[in-house]
Amino acid sequence: MKPDRIPRVGLVSLGCAKNLLDSEVMAGVLTKRGFEMTSDPANADALVVNTCGFIGPAKEEGINTILDLARLKREGRCRRLVVAGCLAQRYAGELAREIPEIDAVIGLDEVERIAEVLTASGRRTPPLRADQSVTWLYDHTTPRIRSTASHTAYIKVAEGCDYPCSFCVIPQIRGHFRSRDPDSVLAEAASLAAAGTRELVLVAQDTTAYGRDLGIRHGLARLLRELAQVEGVAWVRFLYAYPTTLDDEVLSAMAEVPEVCRYVDIPLQHASRRVLVDMRRPGTRQSNERLLARIRDAVPGVAIRSTFIVGFPGETEREFRELFDFVEAARFDAMGAFVYSNEESATSHVDEEVISETEKEDRRARLMELQRGIALARHREMVGSVVPVLVDGAAEESELLTAGRTEGQAPDVDARVLIVDGDAPAGRFVDVEITEAHPEDLLGHALEGSVAETVRVTAATA
Ligand code: SF4
């Protein structure tokens, strides 16, 4: 692509927060190299799509997005279409072969090479290599342009995964587990906080293993305590805990340090021992129950979120019922359920699935309906209480509502607090009296005079 003026790049990011972070790095690298970013793909000279390749629906979304952008390329001003991300890493050759509008596919190790790939001419696919050898991970010196609100930022503290979960292809795509240097994470946090970030959300494929490969004992607990000391940081939380590595030190940090959110996101995947064994995951229904009790004992007021897979090969109605009963008793603050996706390179792949898609969807719907009732009951318990809320800004559904979150609600995945009246500026903390409960949201009003830069310790918590 020959730039006769500043080339405009449209970047579409799909998938999870970890992928979003890679997109933010690409935007940072491109901006540093003199490109202009545009949110309007029709007006872009070059298009980049950062894909997710985790499960069937994500792959489908990725391919449909590429096809939409390919059509734009044929009709619009775009001269170069680049595909990045997990789908690109997994199917580079196939994508380039099947979609001729794609000019370049870049691998996960090449995120920082996006500018050269955009300015190169001709078609290219990443050099062939064993997927397990992916090693790239950004650090605090890597350019990054944030796409989230300035008061909240994701920080990727590690990448890759060494667990053998039979349904998951992530280790094949993203490589072995590796942690960032704690000093690099702290330096990034300090610069984010200096720019106005109040909430840090730590992500990785396997966040509770943080530091293990660097020989740091209790790495996540230490990191949480250190991040809490960074000036300007009011909340730090992490996502994606693994059941056997969520240690007591992490729970103590949550219980003792006000800046460490009392929030545990712990995908448990199932409750039936037989299914968990086939998933190559640890635990049983009883051990999961003990784990939840340990978390709740150690951290009073903690919010727990989990995710499960239904329709795993061979899951009988009785095994599903065991999961259902477990979820009913566990009373998670938030829960997500996914239908099993039969990935061809996953160990759990079966040639023919016995459980139909309809049955899988039905099990998912039953589990989600159960959780709706639990969430509503839990939210009703909060009516009348006053909770500190970080204000995110105008709610998507109405400009009359302002959306915010309690320490028990992570961005994008959890319920929100919708503030119906009172002063609630974005990026600030306010005390909100909860007046109404719904399964997805809580409603309330901001207490007069409660706007603060950080959490007010005087506020009562639910
Ligand atoms: S721990 Fe998570 S990322 Fe790692 S293999 Fe299991 S499901 Fe995949």
Topology:
Elements: E1 8-13, H1 17-32, E2 36-38, E3 46-51, H2 56-75, E4 80-85, H3 86-98, E5 104-105, H4 114-119, E6 152-156, E7 158-159, H5 170-174, E8 178-179, H6 182-194, E9 199-203, H7 219-228, E10 235-238, H8 248-256, E11 263-265, H9 273-279, H10 285-298, E12 303-310, H11 317-330, E13 334-339, H12 357-382, E14 386-395, E15 398-405, E16 416-421, E17 429-437, E18 441-446
Parallel strand pairs: 1-2, 1-3, 3-4, 4-5, 6-9, 9-10, 11-12, 12-13, 16-18
Antiparallel strand pairs: 7-8, 14-15, 14-17, 15-16, 17-18
Helix pairs in contact: 7-8, 11-12
Which range does the strand content fall in? 15-25%
Q: How many distinct helices?
A: 12
Number of domains: 3
The CATH superfamily title of the largest domain: tm_1862 like domain
Using only C-alpha atoms, the radius of gyration works out to 22 Å
Distance between the termini: 56 Å
Order of secondary-structure elements = EHEEHEHEHEEHEHEHEHEHHEHEHEEEEE
Assign the CATH architecture of the largest domain: Alpha-Beta Horseshoe
CATH class category label of the largest domain: Alpha Beta
Which class of secondary structure composition applies to the elements?
Answer: alpha/beta
Provide the residue-averaged pLDDT.
Answer: 93
- Give the overall shape: globular
Widest β-sheet, arrangement of strands: 2-1-3-4-5
Characterize the main sheet. Answer: 5 strands, parallel
